[in-house]
Fold this sequence. Notes:
BLOC-1-related complex subunit 6, mainly alpha, BORCS6, BORCS6_C
Amino acid sequence: MMITDLNGTIQNGMYTLMARCEELDRSMQPIHTLAAQIRDIKRTLDTLGPIYSNRISGTKTHPSCKDQHQAS
């Protein structure tokens, strides 16, 4: 009977652990959404950063800016 009790205790502990992990996963969902938004903002900044830094320094290396620079 002791082994049966031990197996039951282990099984209950496993179910409790699984339930806690599911709870944690649900509570972390807003963080996953926020992380995706941050990645999107970073990608946008990485794309726009060189365009604006070149304008500040006076050089225009972006293809659309290069055409305008040559025309003037």
